[in-house]
Amino acid sequence: MATLEDVAKKAGCSIATASRALGARGPVSDGVKGRVRKAAAELGYRHGTAGPGRGGRRPLIGVLIPSITNPVFAASLSQIQNRMQVGGHAVVLAQSNYDPAQEADAIEALLSERPTGLILTLCNAEHSVPQADRLPPTVLLNNLPTSIFPAAVTVDNREAGRLITRQLIDHGHRRILFVSGNFAASDRAFLRFEGYQSALAAAGVDSLPALQIPFIGSYEQLDISIAVAEHRPTAIIASNDLLACGVIGALRRQGLSVPQDVSVAGFDGIAMGQLMTPPLTTIEMPDSSMGAVAASLLLDMAERGAAPRHLQVGFTLKPGGTVRSV
C-alpha cells in the first residue's frame, strides 16, 4: 500500500507539503497541489484511509523544553504549535527538568516518534548530545549555535545581564548579589551572570559569587538568609522572574521590604511579575515571537532545504517598582 511518504517522494516535495496538498490545513501553490494529487492517483494512494504522515501518520516535529511549568517555555510552545498547525505538522513535547541526564532520554523519546525536525532548548548546547549524528533538521531555542547545531534562535543573554546590572549601578547599588539556578542546568543563566560581572567590572565594582539553587522545586520556601547576612546586598538580580518572585518572598520572610531594604530585578517579563505589587523590574524576553521564529526556521530547513541560520531577537528593559535608588 502506498504511503504519503511515497507520494511526497514521487511529487518531489516534503511529506508536510504533500499532506497539505491533499487536504490538511496550510498554503500550497496550485502547481504543487496538482503534482501531489497526480502522484497520489498514480500510486493509488487514498488520503485519509491511514492518515497523513510517514507510514500513514501526520508529520510531526519534536520539541524539548526544560519545564512546562515555566511560563517562558509555555509561551514559546504555544507559538510553535500555532505555526506548525498551519504548516501541517503535529507537535510532540518532552521535558528535561533542567537535568542533563534526563535530557538525553528525552531526545531519544522524541526520535522514537520519527519527527521531521526538532526544536531543542538544551541545558548546555556546548555539551555533546549522544544522538547528534542521527538527528533530523534541528533548531536550538534559547541556546547559542554550535558547530553541531548551527541553527538557533536566541537573545543576547550576556548583554541582557549587563543591562539590568547597569540599571542597578545607575541607581547607586554596589553590593549586588546574583541568584540563579544551577549554571550546569542553564547556559542562559550563566551568560546573564557573565553580563552581570562585565557591568560591575566596567564600573570598578567587585562582583559577588553567584548563589546557585536548584531550578526544579517550589520557591515558596526559598531561604537566602545566609547569603544576605554574609554579603549584605542592597540589590539582588535573579536569573529569571519566577526565581525573583521567590527571592522577594524569602526577603519578606526575613522581615525585609522590597525595595526599601533590598531591590530585586529579574529576567523574562512574565505576567506574574508585572501583576505583583510593586511590579517587578525585569528584562522582557520575546518568548512568543522566538517560538514562532524557531518554528518557521525549522520548516524552512526541513521542507525547503534552507541553510541553518542564527537569528537573534531583541529584548526590552522594563523598569518596575522593585528597584529604588540608594
From TrEMBL:
Record flagged with keyword Calcium: no
Keywords per UniProt: DNA-binding, Transcription, Transcription regulation
Domain of life according to the entry: Bacteria
Family matches, as SUPFAM superfamilies: lambda repressor-like DNA-binding domains (SSF47413), Periplasmic binding protein-like I (SSF53822)
Keyword Transcription: yes
Pfam families in alphabetical order: LacI, Peripla_BP_3
Residue span, HTH lacI-type domain: 2-46
Protein name: Substrate-binding domain-containing protein
Source organism of the structure: Rhizobium oryzicola
Lineage: Bacteria, Pseudomonadati, Pseudomonadota, Alphaproteobacteria, Hyphomicrobiales
